[in-house]
Specification:
- The chain is α+β, with helices and mostly antiparallel strands and 188 residues long.
- The chain has one domain (14-187).
- Helices cover 31% and strands 24% of the residues.
- It is built from 2 helices and 12 strands; from the N terminus they run ααββββββββββββ.
- It has helices spanning 9-57, 70-78; strands spanning 82-83, 87-89, 93-96, 99-102, 109-111, 118-122, 132-133, 139-142, 148-150, 165-170, 174-179, 185-187.
- The strands form 4 sheets. It has a 4-stranded antiparallel β-sheet, covered by helices on one side.
- The longest helix has 49 residues, at 9-57.
- The chain is elongated.
């Protein structure tokens, strides 16, 4: 009798299973991240806003802004939130009485180069003015005279849905993050 040539059924099944595992792993790398980029950007933004909010709650430096030292002004300015189409988070550098200064390495931000997500801001905010937090963690914006102004429905007893601050994250899908007049962050 001649010896048989070829593969056994077990060998064929093992090879097919190995190819399936490799295909699933490679496919997940090509398809996976883009589907979750918007959700990840929104979740990072929640963390960043809470971090800046907590840092601002440790220091009530907005009362006499002009009386602050350059180091104190730097700390205040580096805790602001800037939102535009390409960037979300705290600034790289700021201008204080001492001139242009870089923020500490603890600055936190996202850019469109990190992911394919763009950012938008809506609500009763001045789009040209950065967002700060007061001692109680409530959102404020500083006027040209550095006087705080409550935002996100901050002057009314009950914030209407149209008065909340809304941060939109636009990528494969459009997701939103809202903040009410007391600084509470929630997915909306």
């Amino acid at each position: 009798m001649r010896p048989q040539r070829g593969f056994t059924l077990v060998e064929l099944v093992v090879v097919i299973l190995l190819l399936a595992v490799v295909a699933v792993t490679a496919g997940a790398r090509f398809v996976g991240p883009s589907q979750f980029a918007t959700q990840i950007a929104r979740d990072q933004a929640i963390t960043q806003l809470r971090q800046l909010q907590l840092a601002s709650m440790r220091s009530d430096a907005y009362r006499d802004y002009e009386q602050l030292s350059a180091a104190q002004q730097l700390a205040v300015e580096c805790r602001r939130v800037e939102v535009n189409r390409q960037r979300f988070g705290s600034p790289f550098s700021v201008t204080t009485q001492a001139g242009q200064q870089n923020c500490p390495a603890s600055s936190t931000f996202q850019t469109t180069t990190d992911s394919d997500v763009h950012f938008e801001l809506s609500g009763d905010l001045d789009a040209n003015a950065p967002l700060y937090f007061d001692l109680l963690g409530r959102p404020i914006q500083l006027s040209n005279a550095k006087a705080p102004r409550r935002v996100c429905g901050g002057d009314s007893a009950i914030a209407q849905p149209s008065q909340v601050c809304r941060f939109d994250f636009i990528g494969e899908q459009r997701l939103s993050l809202c903040m009410n007049n007391e600084g509470y962050l929630y997915v909306c």
